[in-house]
Amino acid sequence: MSTGRGQQYTGQASASETARLTIAQAVQDALNVEMERDPSIIVLGEDVGLNGGVFRATDGLFERFGPDRVMDTPLAEDAIIGASVGLAVTGMRPVAEIQFMGFVYPAVNQILAHAARMRNRTRGRLTVPMVIRMPYGGGIHAPESHSESYEALFVHSPGIKVVVPSNPYDTKGLLISAIRDEDPVMFLEPKRIYRAFREPVPPGSYTVPLGTAAIARQGSDVTIIAWGAMVRVCLDAASALEREGISAEVIDLRTLNPLDRDTLLASVTKTGRAVVVHEAPRTAGVGAEIVALINERALLQLEAPVERVTGFDTVFPYAKLEKHYLPNRERISAAVRRTLEF
Length: 342
Fold this sequence. Notes:
The protein is built from twelve helices and 15 strands. The strands form three sheets. The chain has a seven-stranded mixed β-sheet with strand order 4-3-5-6-8-7-13, sandwiched between helices. Helix 1 packs parallel to helix 7. The protein folds into two domains: 181 residues, Thiamin diphosphate (ThDP)-binding fold, Pyr/PP domains (Rossmann fold, 3-Layer(aba) Sandwich), CATH 3.40.50; 128 residues, Rossmann fold, CATH 3.40.50.920.
């Protein structure tokens, strides 16, 4: 597994030293490790205590650390984030959970007007070391407002770091890094793959640095860029393309802000072609910013226009249309072929 800038996933781990965890279990493991290490860390949100969270990612924390450090809150997202900002500037390190990304809108003022601006507003006298955990994205046949992917809203906001893991190892290491960071971190957890697979995760403490992408698969013909649940879809597409004789490199960005431009641009320079994949709506998505970056920094290395495979510019649909909305192996493969045929 990758722990540094542009490193290759290896998947090598000793069974005697690691447990095979899901992403949800990796979240829980990271919180246990950090709360044991640092008594200033508290967890708060709707149902995070007695029920262990709607996805059980905080299961067991209430019993271990008690109600003073694992707090069930009212159904009031603005209060959850507002209280977290106050706690953070006065010496605590809150980890706040918003149950679904679609529930965050009442708290946007607290996030953008206060958490993101406090360091600048006080000229560095105050920082806001807090994490906002949010399950995000589609793929679980949820009702309205439970499948949003609006990461671009927060990437566009200076002062907030935005992290999106795609596998258990990175989830634990990135969450530990986020908790230790001195600035607010939006930690987006792809709920579609919360329990889709298990991978080796070392015990104890380790970090994956924020702002570092990973090369999830090496390739030479085209670069596929993704994050979150879409990384596994892209890896599936790359495997299918390999049977056609096409070598696709897959970049897992891991952190959207700060963005690892060096790894991204090095890959595109090598392959000369790029496809950006995300499940958020197409217009003004993070993919558009990545395309602009490639055009500005690697235009002369391109052999074809950069393709985007994204969600559509609609509200996320109900369950019957979910598979049509989400990028899949066929759409990604078709985009890759277009770059090769250009």
